[in-house]
Amino acid sequence: MSESNPNARIEAFCDGVFAIALTLLIIDIKIPATAEIHNTHDFWIALWSIVPAILAFVLSFVIILITWVNHHASLKMASKSSAAFIYSNGLLLLSVVFLPFPTSLLGEYLLTDHASPAVILYNLNLSFQSVGWIFICTTSLKGKLYKREEMTSTIRTSLNFGYFAFALYAVFAILAIWFPFTIAIVTILSWIIWLVWGLKLKQE
Description:
The protein is built from eight helices and no strands.
């Protein structure tokens, strides 16, 4: 018996990876064992110390969620797959699975004098994620994997967004050498824009 959805196994595998990546984000968020808590005031201070980690967690959660929504939409447009398309999905998943690591670094070092490497690595991973999108769109167009011909314009738009995001976060990574905190804020704002833009597209 043939599958009604030829990409069902790919989608199920990818959904599992996204779920695991989202879960891993929260693991490192905890009050340091070295924190001395003797009263409620000390407890609040300890909680305040992990606010950057919580903000980094929320940012990465939103990023993975948006990525999952867009990935789900891209698979809905595909009527079949190819080896190149499957490996392109793997490339995207690699960036998703790696994200908890720079997230942890960002939460720990953002408000220190050593924030630069964390912000650089975070944005390099986002730039690498864009490469995954570029390959997914390219293999879909070259292999004509889409269900209907009119979907090509949507895929080409996604491809252009992929190129833009690659350049944007690569530039952010470079600028983070000198302005890590500012770039961290701009990175957050960029994903708020992606979220608003995505919601706008879904409503049209």
